[in-house]
Amino acid sequence: MIDLTASEIRDGVRAGKWKAREVVDAHLERIAAVDPKLHAYLHVDADGARAAADRVDASGVKGLLAGVPVAVKDNMCQRGIPTTCASKILEGFRPPYDATALLRALAAGAVPVGHTNLDEFAMGSSTENSAYGPSRNPWDPTRAPGGSSGGSAVSVAARMTPLAFGSDTGGSIRQPAALCGVVGMKPTYGRVSRYGLVAFASSLDQIGPIARTVRDAAMFLQAFAGHDALDSTSAPAEVPDYEKDLEAGVKGLRVGVPKEFFGAGTDPGVRAAIDAALKVLQKQGATLVEMSLPHTDYGIAAYYVIAPCEASSNLARYDGVRFGHRAKSFDGLIDMYRKSRTEGFGEEVRRRILLGTFALSSGYYEAYYKKALQVRRLIKNDFDEAWKKVDVIAGPTSPIPAFKIGEKANDPIAMYLCDVLTVTAPLAGIPGISVPAGFTEGNLPVGLQLLGKEWSEATLLRTARSYERETEFWKRSPAL
C-alpha cells in the first residue's frame, strides 16, 4: 500500500476496496522501518492516526482525502499534539486548537500520522537547523533533504506518507521537494489560511502541499485552500477545481525562460536536466520565450532583510513570560529574557533575530528595511511585466542537487544562496511548483520549477502534469 498514490488510496477507500485502517497501518509500519535512518519525524501519533482512520471507516467519509495518511510540518498547530517548530523554546507545547488548513484536511477524511522535522522556526534550507538533529535525504542519507520542510519532503519521498503539509517562506516547500524528487507547491499568498501556522515572516509564509504526483498535489490543495475569516490575509478568491483541467496539456502555452535562472553557479547536471525538461514542454506544444527578470540577483538580499525583520517582531513573543521555555535561574526580568531566549533559540534563529532587530533599529530602518521593500516592489514589477509576454516561467528549482550534511553549515551566506531561485516568488506573492525532472550522474534528484501569476495554480498544475505525463521520474523511489 505504501506505493499507492494519494488519489489511488482515496478512490480505493471510497469504493470499499480497502479500509482506511489498513492503509494507515501499512504506512505506520513503513515509518517504524525507515524513519530511524532518516529522522523525518519529531512525533509520530500512531494511536491518533489509527483512531482517525477508524472514524473514516465508521462514518463512510467520501471526502477528497478519504483515508489518506498525511504528515504535518511541525510548525502547524494540531490540538493536543506536541508542536515545537523544532525549537527547544517550544519543547512540550501542545496547541489547544487546530490550524485551519489541517482542520479542512481532516474534514475531507485525511489521517494525520505525525509531525515532521524542519529547520527551527522554518529558518533554513537543509533541515540541519533543527534542535532535534537533521533529517536525511532518502536518496543518499549522507546528504541534506533541503529545507525548511525537509521532514515532510522525506516522508513523501521515502513512502512514509503519500502527502505532507509544508510551508514556504523563501522556498521551503519547493526546494526540499526538488532535492528529494517529489512534487511541492507554494500557492499564491492568501490562497491558504495561515491561521494556526506558527509565524516566521507573516508577509511571506504560505502553507502548501508536498506529494508524489501532480494530481495528488492538486487534490490536496483543493481540500484546504480557500478564504478563512480567522486569517485577515486570507483572500476571498474562489478556489477552482484543480483536478478538472489537469490533462488539458500545454499546447499554445507561452513558457518564459529567464536567463537569470541559469547563472554561473548552476550545477551541470541540473542544467542538463532542465534543458531536457524544457524540450519536453516544447515538444508538447508550448512556446519557449527567452526573457529576463532583471532584479532576480537582488532577491536574496531583499529577502534576508525583510524575513529577519518580520521574524524579529514575530519571535518577540517567546520571552519566557507568556509561554515557551523559561530559564531556571536569572537575576531580574532582563536577565530572564536574555537567558530564556539564548537557551531556547538555536544559532540560526538568533542570527536572524539580530539581523532583523538591527535592520529595524533607529537610524538603519530606511537604509535596510525600507530599501528592501523597494527592491521587493521592483521584483514584483519584473513579474508583472513578464506576464504580458508569457503564461508560465520555467527553470531549475535549486541551482545545485542535495549537498552533504555539514557541508554548508558553517557558511550562512552559502546556505542562503541555495534559495536564489525560490525567494523571488514569495517576495512577489505568486505561486510556484517544483516537479521531478530527472537525476544527476550521482543519482540525485533535480526539480523543474514553474512560476505563474497570482491565482494561476490551475495553470501551473496543468503544466506540471503535462510534463509529468511524458516522463517517469516520479515513479522512481529511493532504495531503503
- What does the main sheet amount to? 11 strands, mixed
Q: Using the CA coordinates, give the radius of gyration.
A: 21 Å
Q: How do the SSEs run, as a string of H and E?
A: HHEHEHEHEHEEHEHEHHHHEHHEEH
In CATH, the architecture of the domain at 6-245 and 471-475 is: Alpha-Beta Complex
Subunit organisation of the chains:
single chain
Number of distinct helices: 15
How would you describe the overall organization of this protein?
- The protein is α/β, with parallel strands linked by helices and 480 residues long.
- 37% of the residues lie in helices and 13% in strands.
- The protein has a domain at 6-245 and 471-475: Alpha-Beta Complex (Amidase signature (AS) enzymes).
- Strands 1-3-2-4-6-5-10-11-9-7-8 form an 11-stranded mixed beta sheet, with helices on both faces.
- Helix 2 packs antiparallel against helix 3 (46-59), helix 7 (214-224) runs antiparallel to helix 15 (457-470) and helix 9 packs across helix 12 (366-386).
- The radius of gyration is 21 Å and the shape is globular.
Descriptive terms for the model:
480 residues, alpha/beta, eleven-stranded mixed sheet, 37% helix, globular
Task: Quickly describe the structure.
With 480 residues, this protein is α/β, with parallel strands linked by helices. It is built from 15 helices and eleven strands.
